[in-house]
Amino acid sequence: MEIVKRSGAAEAYDGSKIVAAMAGAFSDTGRDASEELLAALLDAVERSIAQQDARNVEQIQDIVERCLMEQGCFDEAKAYILYRHKRAELRAARASIVQTACSAGGCEIDATGVSLAERLDACLARIQKDFPGDAYALTVLAAKFASFVKPGMGVDDRLSALVRAAVELTAQEAPRWEFIAARLLSLSFNRTLAADCAARGIATFYDKVRWLTDQDLYGAYILQRYSRAEIEEAAGFMVPERDELFTYSGLDLLLKRYVISTRQHVAIESPQEMFLGIALHLAIDEPADRMQWVRR
What we know:
Elements (H helix, E strand, L loop, with lengths): L1 E3 L5 E3 L2 H14 L6 H18 L4 H14 L3 H29 L13 H15 L7 H11 L6 H15 L7 H23 L5 H10 L6 H5 L2 H8 L12 H10 L13 H12 L7 H6 L1
Antiparallel strand pairs: 1-2
Helix pairs in contact: 1-2, 1-4, 2-3, 3-4, 4-5, 4-6, 4-7, 5-8, 6-7, 7-8, 8-12
């Protein structure tokens, strides 16, 4: 069976998600639920889903609430209702941030056919997943961001304001906002980097090495000592998700002082490309398994 998500997309039904949500409701009330009880509740939910031919997420969640109450789990039903309400607030905050940040140009599409709005929404969804807890709720970020936005701001300024909002939320009692700010800075930087590379006809890492060499910003020895096939293989070693390990201060320093920039002070490589360039340099004289040394 397929269910329809709130976005309108369809995905395969997964009963384990219902079990996890119900287990969370029991945990919120301080009561442990046995596997047998959760299995019985899931069976009741699935029978009701089949009887009603429920296919969308909201219908199924309504059924879960009702089944909890029918089984006498009133406190757990209340906890589940509160959980749904909180999730709805977080979805609204996420949508508000995306709308506010992208309203001055969110329809722009990158080379992969993905809009800025979609990229920001995906970034915020990962942040919401990786930074649970009220201290890092997107509702907090949305409120701070709204206070920084001014009429007439373009997309660049709005993204900068979003990053600044996360930076200003960083505090001793909520230090992980610095990691959230870094993710937002990375998204903003990569958007600008993609446009700057496209303007110079740079589509691949090999193109970038060639362009940087032609501009005397890269030593010629990389192209002289590595084949195109090796450079293209090396490009596959990059893992952009590693940028999520940066704090804001670390990433900001790296982007301002260490990635290669043009003579007009335009950053023209990503952090992962910078590290890969260093790896190519360090492994250049390895007599055996050179590409494995690059990967390491």
